[in-house]
User: What shape does this take?
Amino acid sequence: MKRLFTILFAAAALAVAATGCYDDSFLQSQINELKDRVGTLEEQMRTANSNIGNLTTLVEALGKKLTVTSIEEKDGTYTINFSEGAPITIKNGVSPQIGVKQDSDGIYYWTLNGDWLLDAQGNKLRVTGLPGESATAPKLDIVDGYWYISTDDGATWEKLGKATGENGQDGDAFFKAIDWDAAYLYLTMADGTKLTISRGTYGIKQLAVVPDYSDGSVMIDGDAATMRFDVRPAPAASGLRHLPKDNYSLNVAYTMTKAAAGDELNLSVTGVTIEDGRITITVDASALDASFRKGTLGANANLTITYDQFNQVMSGYFPLTYFDKFNGHDYVDLGLSVVWATCNVDAIHPAGSGGFYAWGELNEKPKYEWSNYLWADGVYDKLTKYCTNEAYGTFDNARFLADDDDVAHQKWGGAWRLPNKAEMEELCNQANCSSVWTIENGVVGRKFTSKKEGYTDKSIFLPAYGFYDGAVNKMTTAGFYWSSSLITATPYGAYCLEITSGAAFTYEEERYRGFLVRPVVSAPGPDPEPVLGTLDNPFTPAQAAEAVKDLSWTSNTVYEYLDDVYVKGKISRILDKGTFTEGGTYGNASFFISEDGTTDEFYCFRILYLGNKKFATGQTDIKVGDDVIIHGQLMNYRGTTPETVSGKAYIYSLNGKTKNLYSNEVPFCRGLANVTSDSQSVPSKNKVCPLQKILYLYSHEIHQLERKRPEGRCRQGICRYFRWF
Assistant: This one.
């Protein structure tokens, strides 16, 4: 570089001497300009070589899994500190496109203009040396206004392009971009290659526990615990994704030291997930002292995340609370989704009856009738809570018992609750459990024995004590147990488990009646797969057709069906809107729905309107393309056509709307007040007749045939001698 300046200066001096008399101001300006140009070129060269050294340091940091502890920027110069070693200073400048890139062997090599930089032997030039050796980094120089590069520590040089000293004309910016967030430092080189270096825990400003209780404590559930921690700022959590669970440590310190317990211990972290700035860990809590579980010994815990020996973050201590989900009550694990209590609420042994409760009530009473039912205003169609059909009271769309109204949970505490309909059906499913009618301690009932591998020696006994209607204990040779599931189409009823000498099955009964309660607790393990056909996870039209394809059909009055299911789709064709071709106005409509509005159609036959009400005369709200959710019963008509049961399904939602803006009430049980069968009177419309129509089964033989088949019984459960429609 000195040679370049000397030649230029001598040339200028000779030119001046040849003129004899001269004005030296011009010469001086030329000399100053040359000095500035040379200074610029020298600064570019120094910056380029410095950045080559910085790249070496950055690649070494990646190899050693170092983390960036801080980044400071001032006037375009970046100072980067690492968890180990000296900081580097990056000042961006222009140069040939020198970069680094990781090859398929996992090693970083130098590149020039995006291509591998080769030494004299044609080998790629490593950024870091082999173990025990140092690597040779490329060097840059400017000679006679041109860039030169050496790959052998200056022994030989290769000419590259012109270095004019003009930004953008003599090369490219060494780094295209230098960015960072709470989790990573990102360096993008001129050829587009990006280096990403973790900030470890240094980007985390706070690691805060998410408590389970209002006192700030976290629940220990038996021998396991799930703990959640919010990372602030949230993006910093992503920098921990690659850390193994062994880098997480949960230390527990007892707040009242006992010799048997010791002062503190570490609990094993068995799993870690990170999502949206939240770290969730699972912990093996089996080592906690028995005194803690009994409540006589307190404990606080602290989470420590260790990135490396220089790099840790701690949550601070938080209290632990032991939760006994069984609360001292015995249970049997049948290998199902829930464990079942060994006895009923209020019973002291498996054969005891326990208390009789109306659905959603917490106390027994002398009489069980609509007039004193807690969640109705005296009659079945003035419900004040748990109403999914506005025709029957105050609509709140509550479909399951809340904990406050769950007698199992309120009386037993812990995690005890009423089973839902699906859990009862799981128990009755003969693929899961066998069941026999038997006698235990002089009481008749049904014994369920698990068929699940590893649980075949486990069983529970459900005694048969009948139910209460009014002040009378009825059907004492059968057993009736409430579920937590409402009948959403006709919410004056709820599902129950009925056991008889012939079978066990879920059934539908009026909520005011007094039934028994057998509590359950969700079994440990992963959450079950979402159940299809619910409001939260409705069938698609194709899934609905698949679900009913194996259901039997004998006649228009004897068939199998799915009840209380939801199907979501888009109206693809409309056959009727309230008026059928055979004449008359029935207040329903028939149409097809599909997922995309075209293919895999499902037939919605004689569907009622929003709120489970009839379409108003002349009403034409629905149209092709509307998004609907259908709720009710599904069947496989004649064994070949999946469809809704006529008049037993309705539009739950129409383009997101669930409220019926029309009113078209129909008189109820009109003209059927005195029809009888087997000497049993059908209630009049002014008494307890909860549905709008009855189809009387014409022959006693057909009626008896249906009663022998649980799946074909009078499914609404209000009148055992008629099928209700």
Q: What stands out?
A: The helical segments are 2-19, 24-64, 290-294, 407-412, 421-428, 541-548, 700-707. The two ends are 101 Å apart (CA to CA). The first strand starts at residue 68 and ends at 74.
